[in-house]
Amino acid sequence: MTPPVPGFAEAAGHAWRTLGLTWSASRGLTILIAALTVFVALLPALALYLSKLVMDGVVTAMDSASPADRDLAQLWVAAEAATLAVLLAARRLLTFYKTRLHAELGFAVTSLILRKSAALSLAQVEDAAVQQQFLLARQYAASRPYNLVNRLFDAAQQGLTLASVAALLAGFSPWLFLLVVAGGLPLFIGNLHFAGTAYRFYTGRSPQMRERSYLESLVTTEAAARERLHFGFGDELLRRYGELFHSLHADDSALHARQAWIASALGVLSSAVFLGGKVWIVWVTIGGAISLGQMVMLVGLLKQGQANVSSLMAAFNGVVEDLLYVANLFAVMELPEEDRSSGATAGPDPEDGLRFDKVSYSYPGRKRPALDAVSFHLPHGSRLGIVGANGSGKTTLVKLATGLYAPDSGRVTLDGLDLRDWQRAALSRRLGVMFQPYMNYKLTARDNIAAGRGLAETDAASLARAARLGLAEELIAELPSGLDTRLSRHFLDGHDLSGGQWQRLAMARAYLNDEADILILDEPTAAMDPAAEAEFMQRPLDGKSVILISHRLSNLRHADQIIVLDKGKRIEMGSHDTLIAQGGLYADLFESQADPYREG
Ligand code: ADP
């Protein structure tokens, strides 16, 4: 899917908004660049006018042989030289300030994108179309908005120079000015057509580009190395990579060849128009209608004018192409944000705990709901077990129970209040969660735990308590720098952990928040050894309630209630004994797992 090319009013709006971004990124630089642009724009016409005075001064001095005329001619030479020197210096200065603006604007735009990304809901983040928009916006964050602004300044500069050239040319004949414009027109039209084609071409094939970088990552990353080496598919990956590259490259070359061909033909046309004008000026000079100085100036103006027209056109074409990318940036900025900073911090019925009332949720584009009219009640101080095959909706239930998704129908309430009406921070304080999959942060061990309280500064006693409850005490003690060990081999003095060790840290993270009275643990012990798992499962609740998702049914024996999910539906609910007595799916599953775990 390629984004549509915006209309004129919309494009102008985007250009204006980008200038607004520039202004807020750095007022000082914007003003400096604008002032220098005007200055640099007006100097070429002045220099050309001075060259006319020089030439006419020389002719007069030769005719009169008077020292005053000679001095005057030399004065004009000095003035012309000074103008050119100032022009050169001002251009340098302009480039210098623009380089600084490039960095400032790139940072400002990237920050905006990151801030936006952080403010989106989980459902938005998981949306493939949104991911695509962000990918494109991030990829060009540093280049396109700056390019657009730079080209707008360029266009203004070229436009101003052209206006000053036009004023001088029109004094001789308005036809010459028309000639200048006519000379630039073919290139303009050719490029305008090309800008839209190139954009559609490059954005239209971003799926192949993503495929290419994915293949690259399979060959280079550590995570993929074990299977790649063992199964031996490195060569096949390289072959696919090469094939993809050659097909992309062939398309590229065809596009560039077509562009080069059109550009040369149009370039020849433009030069022919310019040469025609020059022939005319020389003809008129020989006829005695204008002075030698005027001839020099007019030929210079014609040349300057034509250069301006093609630079103006080039800037304009660039603007069109950049606008297409910037339109995507603004579309990203306009994505609705979820403001969860306000809202209730307590519910009307503090004794009620967590409740699912006929909750359904479907992923976009999926026919079957991932969760279908599921109800249950988790009173304070109770344990709820959830069982189900892969894909039965357990993880979706966790996302709904933590308020990360809003149900399509039905209600999730905490203490009698819909989760949607809770302030996010308050919810986060009430719920300790271990997600599946959990994150392994390549930060310090301390950060891995402190993430459970928003990475806030955390006292040693709280960290130690969380580490103990997460069964991570021992592993932290063995790290070379304890809590301050960087958990990645990619850093000097870094250290890597095993799967089960990472899981203990994730559990410590879920436990850090000691205010949380509801723990939601999705497969918390899957990567742990049986001894650790048994220790964890036999732990007293201390008045908290727990939702525990586990494939090992023996872990759920002590739950007050167990829910069996199948294809998003709650098909059984009850205590272990009730469910066994019922002889349904739970009883079958338990029987098939029983032997290794059966209590002797
Ligand atoms: P479980 O945790 O029990 O394995 P999930 O809750 O992850 O199951 O998934 C339930 C159903 O929803 C599955 O059919 C799965 O394919 C689908 N699903 C899960 N996540 C997504 C997603 N981000 N987009 C689309 N479908 C999804």
Task: Give the gist of this structure.
The chain has 20 helices and ten strands. With 600 residues, it is an alpha/beta fold.
Can you walk through the features of this model?
The chain is of the alpha/beta class. The chain folds into 2 domains: 8-333, ABC transporter transmembrane region fold; 354-597, 3-Layer(aba) Sandwich (Rossmann fold). 64% of the residues lie in helices and 9% in strands. The protein has 20 helices and 10 strands. The chain has helices at 8-25, 27-64, 67-118, 122-125, 128-139, 144-172, 174-204, 206-220, 222-231, 234-286, 292-333, 394-401, 424-430, 445-450, 460-469, 473-478, 499-512, 530-537, 576-582, 585-597, and strands spanning 354-361, 371-378, 383-388, 409-414, 417-418, 431-434, 518-522, 545-549, 561-566, 569-574. Strands 6-7-8-3-9-10 form a 6-stranded mixed sheet, with helices on both faces. Strands 2-1-4-5 form a 4-stranded antiparallel sheet, covered by helices on one side. α18 links the parallel β7 (518-522) and β8. The radius of gyration is 36 Å and the shape is elongated. 30% of the residues are buried. The mean pLDDT is 88. The chain binds adenosine-5'-diphosphate. The site of adenosine-5'-diphosphate has 12 residues, from α12. The chain crosses the membrane at residues 29-50, 72-90, 184-202. GO terms for molecular function: ATP binding; ATP hydrolysis activity; ATPase-coupled lipid transmembrane transporter activity.
